[in-house]
Design brief:
alpha+beta; eight-stranded mixed beta sheet; globular; binds adenosine-2'-monophosphate; binds calcium ion
Length: 268
């Protein structure tokens, strides 16, 4: 597993360097619209290509799922799930909150995770069963015991998820009345790394994609946290609608969201 992790780290640093070199140099003409309010730049594309080249250079038979290129390579037991820039909207606006996310699933199970933040040069890593690290030092989820005083992260529904906005906002109101504070920085992968490292006590968001969350989910689990899909019965990574937190806050957070199960079921 260490060799896979080393490959993921090399690829994440390479992609992060490409992003950082171009940071705050993006012109309007560099921005392409993928869909209404969904953007991509040549930097996302170059960084993804760099990651794919490194992984396929070493493991030509492995499958890669990337945000920009979709599936690359034949189907195999090894699936790398990559996001070259998580937080592209921030990146385009020179708002320095974004990251590279790389996860490896083997036979359907998350085994390796890397999240790299080029702005702070922070490297979050995990191998299943071996804990989670930040720059080589062990990290754990927070010890916060009550929602009172807790710091939660979240993301708003966007684009094709605007039907979920009302129920999302009702949940947001419930949390806002109880917790210490809520943050919405705009990079879900980095948010999950912050739950793993105890900076946040919990996080929830609807409608994310596997490449936004795969690495972060393993990081949180390896740091002693809990993750679940907010859509009953679904896998957290596949559904992309997830709730996570330290073991003290996971149940109280789940209880608040479960008040809305009926409304959520109608939307999914
Ligand atoms: P992305 O930058 O890789 O697309 C923010 O809530 C999270 O949602 C980010 O991880 C972001 O990942 C993802 N996201 C996907 N599509 C988005 C969009 N159109 N606008 C904002 N965030 C989006
Ligand atoms: Ca992206």
């Amino acid at each position: 597993m260490q060799a896979f992790l080393n490959t993921a780290i090399e690829a994440a640093r390479k992609a992060g360097d490409i992003a950082q070199i171009n940071f705050a140099r993006i012109n309007q003409s560099d921005i392409k619209t993928k869909a209404y309010n969904e953007f991509v730049t040549f930097v996302d594309e170059e960084a993804e290509k760099a990651i794919i080249d490194i992984i396929h250079g070493r493991y030509p038979d492995h499958t890669i799922l990337g945000e920009e290129q979709g599936l690359k390579g034949d189907e195999s037991d090894y699936l790398w799930i990559i996001d070259p820039i998580d937080g592209t909207t921030n990146y385009i606006h020179s708002f320095p909150v974004y990251c590279v996310s790389i996860a490896l699933k083997i036979k359907g199970r998350l085994e390796v995770a890397v999240i790299y933040d080029p702005s702070r040069q922070e490297l979050f890593t995990a191998i299943r069963g071996m804990g989670a690290l930040l720059d080589g030092r062990k990290i754990r989820v927070s010890k916060q015991r009550t929602l009172q005083g807790a710091l939660l992260g979240t993301g708003f529904p966007y684009r094709d998820q605007l039907d979920w906005l009302e129920v999302y906002l009702d949940i947001f109101i419930d949390f806002t009345r109880i917790v210490g504070a809520i943050r919405r920085p705009g990079s879900a992968a980095l948010d999950l790394a912050y739950v793993a490292s105890g900076r946040y006590d919990g996080f929830w968001e609807f409608g994310l994609k596997p490449w936004d969350v795969a690495a972060g989910v393993l990081l949180i689990q390896e740091a002693g946290g809990l993750v679940k899909s907010m859509i009953p019965g679904e896998d957290a990574v596949e559904s992309g609608s997830l709730l996570c937190g330290n073991p003290h806050l996971f149940d109280p957070m789940s209880e608040i969201v479960s008040k809305y199960d009926d409304r959520l079921k109608k939307l999914f």
